[in-house]
Amino acid sequence: SPRRAREVARPRQVAMYLAKTMTSRSLPDIGRRFGGRDHTTVIHGVRKIEELKVADSQIADDLELLRRALEA
After folding, report:
1. 3-state secondary structure of 26
2. What ranges in the chain are assigned the alpha helix state H?
């Protein structure tokens, strides 16, 4: 969806972050798989989640739980 509401955008950014950090897919490929988004949107999402991860330990913990669940 092209929606930008935080309740939709933040989970999408988390998914993009995980796709970038856990796969060898290119930024354009990840963007295409998230509804035809541009690679710069993926870069923004990844950077945003990296910033939040440093600033909020709960987000860092949640990301680690998601990573473990996906690797299992």
Report:
1. coil
2. 6-22, 27-33, 39-55, 57-71
Angle value at C-alpha 17, between 14 and 23, nearest 5 degrees: 130
Distance, CA of 23 to CA of 17 (rounded, Å):
10
Q: Could you tell me the CA-to-CA distances from 68 to 9, 17, 50, 51, 52 in Å, in that order?
A: 22, 14, 17, 20, 19
Q: Within a 13 Å sphere around the CA of 31, how many CA atoms are in the beta-carbon half? A: 14
Give tens-digit pLDDT for 14-51: 999 999 999 999 999 999 999 999 999 999 999 999 99
CA neighbor of 59 nearest in space, from 8, 9, 14, 2: 14
